[in-house]
Automatic annotation (TrEMBL):
PANTHER family from the UniProt entry: OUTER MEMBRANE PROTEIN ASSEMBLY FACTOR BAMA (PTHR12815:SF23), SORTING AND ASSEMBLY MACHINERY SAMM50 PROTEIN FAMILY MEMBER (PTHR12815)
Annotated source species: Albidovulum litorale
Gene it is expressed from: bamA
Subunit structure: Part of the Bam complex.
Family: Belongs to the BamA family.
Protein name: Outer membrane protein assembly factor BamA
Keyword Nucleotide-binding among record annotations: no
PROSITE patterns, alphabetized: POTRA
Record's subcellular location: Cell outer membrane; Membrane
Source organism phylogeny: Bacteria, Pseudomonadati, Pseudomonadota, Alphaproteobacteria, Rhodobacterales
Signal peptide region: none
């Protein structure tokens, strides 16, 4: 039970608590009303004063603030003005102070940049870094911009494969409110690709797929090779390369599922793993052509299709045959035809049935072709890459192919071709935007071979002479026993047609080059080359030269002495050469065939009357899951004279034709004299066979092996000096092994050979090393 005293005390405590609560509520409401009134206060300034500015005009500062005289503004608007002034990047500090009817804006300007410099950079030059950043001398310094520039420099190093690069901006204060901006750079090591691997691949080995990628593993020459550095954009390009590789071999469902990038603990290397899903390889099944274009007979179009059942599917084959069908439409004058390939999958048989449907497309014309960005290259050089001209029906495929031809010129860093709506609904404007790059070069080179020793060359060339798309080059080569010089001019579109005009002039000498005589040749040859079929080209040429054999040794054959006595002889000839080559644009990426046949008819003036015939047939195929490359070549030639005996300078010596022998190492010889010089022959024939294969070494080393076998001969003379010269047809055969090394300094080839069949007087060469490089 509670006493009365305690009850009174408890009641008073309750009343006190209630009073305190009431007072708290009262003051809270009062403060809220006061704060609301304060924040809701409006200002109107009849005058705006700017203080503290040194270089920036007051009107500019007021404009950034965004407050006008006489305008009613709130306290929130004043705060927004402060934020806008700070965001301009022009000021260290900003203070906005209302003072009655006057608004005072006090600023402290950022300093002006005196100089921009870089410290610690060795791999990327100052000039390159200056093109990356936006901070410049005599501009206002901004901390935010300096940080952004540091990030841009870091990105530039990342693109160069140096992901560990660090960049810190630092300022050095100078008088007059100026600063020097210094970017301190720690470049770090190149982030290399230590390992490239694949998962999910069954049809092709890791080694074969590495050959497809642009990215390479780091190998022995990691300090020289640049493609072994990690670049994210290059990985994306590699994914597309893998996709194109598989789909061109029938794997229509191929996908790159992911690319895992594992960073090494040292942060200087990546381990890349491409996870792929190959799917099944499909072949072509039934191939047919149907016409849905009124008045078009499908028969001639069906004859133009070059697809047959059983071929491995490739998108390139589809595109190639669409081109053929569109060419037939162009020939017949059928406009606005669209060839639509309709593909039906047969999963059980793993075949794809293809129907080429001839349909009528929309009536759209090319209004004009606009070309921009070409400061040097003439418009016509770019325009002639399109078969379409203004006013022609619009063919999207032809525009894409024209874009590819522009890029293939190799005159431009970039070449973008797009089509947009013209001035009418049935008109299209084709925009071509290019960025030119240097096309001239001055090269110094060196070469070496066991037979000819060390040689040096210098070359000057321009691939886009005067912006006309013409090629001009001058080359000088000097070896131990020979000197060669030449000048070449090529007009790829003579008379603005698909005619390739070529002019070559040369002056070559030898001084006892693996022989006991010297030679001198000077001449020139103009020619015209043009296509006569999809893979066939015909060249028509004229050549005139003055050839001289001199300094014949006293112990040489009488045949050579007689030819020396003739002195310099002039050869004037007309000739032709037919070439059929499927290496570029062929239907099968793993198989190619090349055929060359040519004849030169001397006697169009000059001292020599003869017919010289040359022929070559070569075949190459990749086998064993494309791990091994097989090559076979058959080559032969014949010289037939009509006004006397052939000369050494007209005959075949076999140089470079049959491996395993020295230059001038085989062929007819006069065995009755001391030096037994090779005399050359009127005929030669050779068969060459070769296989190139991996040796199990890492692919990035660029080292492969090979086996080869050659069999052939050089024979036949118009005068064998009553039998004292052995000019009979006698076969030589050679087998050997090769080591190929594709180095950054140039391709090296080591040949080790053994002659199985030879003559006692032949000069065998069991080892040969060739290397050629340019700087």
């Amino acid at each position: 039970m509670v006493s009365d005293g305690q009850g009174v005390l408890g009641a008073s405590n309750v009343l006190a608590g209630r009073a305190k609560a009431a007072l708290f509520v009262f003051f809270t409401i009062l403060f809220g009303l006061f704060f609301t009134a304060a924040t809701a206060q409006n200002y109107a300034f009849s005058r705006i004063v700017v203080e503290g500015n040194e270089h920036i005009e007051p009107a500019t500062i007021v404009k950034f603030a965004g407050i006008a005289q006489g305008e009613s503004v709130t306290a929130g608007a004043l705060n927004d003005a402060v934020q806008r002034l700070n965001a301009s990047g022009l000021f260290k500090s900003v203070d906005v102070v209302p003072s009655g009817g006057t608004l005072v804006i006090r600023v402290v300007e950022n300093p002006t940049i005196n100089t921009v410099s870089y410290e610690g950079n060795k791999r990327i030059k100052d000039e390159q870094l200056a093109g990356v950043i936006k901070s410049q001398s005599r501009r206002v310094y901004s901390t935010l911009q300096a940080e952004a520039d540091a990030a841009a420099i870091t990105e530039a190093y990342a693109l160069a494969g140096r992901l560990a690069a660090r960049v810190e901006p630092r300022i050095i204060e100078r008088d007059g409110n100026r600063v020097d901006l210094v970017f301190e750079i720690r470049e770090g090591r190149v982030t290399e690709i230590e390992r490239l691997s694949f998962t999910g691949n069954r049809a092709y080995s890791d080694r074969r797929l590495r050959q497809v990628l642009e990215t390479k593993q780091a190998g022995l020459l990691r300090n020289i090779i640049q493609r072994d550095t990690f670049i994210a954009d290059r990985v994306e390009f590699d994914k597309q390369l893998l996709t194109d590789f598989y789909r061109s071999r029938g794997f229509i469902d191929f996908q790159v599922l992911s690319v895992s990038r594992e960073f090494s603990q040292e942060r200087d290397a990546f381990f890349l793993t491409f996870a792929v899903r190959e799917g099944l390889s499909y072949k072509f099944g039934n191939v047919s052509t149907v016409s849905e274009y009124d008045g078009v007979d499908v028969e001639e179009y069906a004859k133009a299709v070059r697809l047959r059942s059983g071929l491995t599917y490739s998108p390139n084959l589809i595109d190639n045959n669409i081109d053929r069908l569109e060419a037939v439409a162009l020939k017949q004058g059928v406009n606005f035809m669209a060839v639509v390939p309709r593909i039906t999958r047969n999963e059980r048989e793993q075949t794809l049935d293809v129907v080429f449907a001839l349909t009528k497309g929309p009536r759209v014309f090319v209004e004009r072709i606009d070309i921009e960005g070409n400061a040097t290259t003439l418009d016509k050089v770019i325009r002639r890459q399109f078969k379409t001209v203004e006013g022609d029906p619009f063919n999207p495929r032809e525009i894409r192919e024209g874009a590819e031809r522009i890029r293939a010129l190799d005159f431009f860093e970039t070449a973008e071709v797009d089509a947009r709506q013209g001035t009418a609904s049935d008109q299209v404007i084709v925009d071509v935007n290019v960025e030119e790059k240097p096309t001239g070069s001055l090269t110094f080179g060196a070469s070496y071979s066991v037979s000819n020793g060390v040689g040096f060359n210098i070359g000057l060339s321009e691939a886009n002479f005067l912006g006309r798309g013409q090629f001009v080059s001058l080359n000088l080569t000097a070896g131990t026993d020979n000197k060669n010089s030449s000048i070449t001019f090529i007009e790829p579109a003579f008379l603005d047609r698909d005619l390739r005009f070529r002019f070559t002039g040369y002056y070559n000498t030898t001084e006892n080059d693996n022989s006991d005589y010297s030679t001198q040749r000077i001449g020139f040859s103009p020619s015209i080359e043009f296509p006569i079929s999809e893979f066939g080209r015909l060249e028509l040429r004229y050549s005139i030269s003055q050839d001289d054999l001199f300094d014949v040794d006293a112990n040489s054959s009488t045949l050579l002495k007689n030819e020396e006595a003739l002195g310099a002889q002039i050869t004037s000839s007309l000739g032709y050469a037919y070439t059929y080559d499927t290496r570029i644009g062929g239907l099968d990426p793993n198989r190619s065939f090349r055929l060359r046949f040519g004849q030169d008819f001397a006697g169009v003036g000059g001292d020599i009357q003869s017919v010289t015939t040359n022929a070559l047939a070569s075949y190459q195929q990749k086998a064993f899951r494309e791990e091994v490359t097989l090559r076979a070549e058959l080559e032969g030639g014949a010289v037939v004279t009509t006004n006397g005996d052939s000369r050494l300078l007209d005959r075949f010596t076999g140089n470079g034709k049959i491996r395993g022998f020295e230059p001038n190492g085989i062929g007819p010889r006069d065995l009755t004299v001391a030096n037994e010089d090779a005399l050359g022959g009127n005929f030669f024939a050779v068969a060459r066979f070769e296989a190139e294969f991996p040796l199990g070494l890492p692919e990035e080393y660029g080292i492969t092996g090979g086996l080869f076998a050659d069999v052939g001969s050089v024979w036949g003379l118009d005068d064998n000096l009553s039998g004292s010269i052995d000019d009979d047809l006698k076969l030589r055969s050679v087998i050997g092994v090769s080591i190929f090394w594709d180095t950054p300094l140039g391709p090296l080839r080591f040949n080790f050979s053994k002659a199985l069949q030879k003559e006692s007087y032949d000069k065998e060469q069991n080892f040969d090393l060739t290397v050629s490089t340019r700087f």
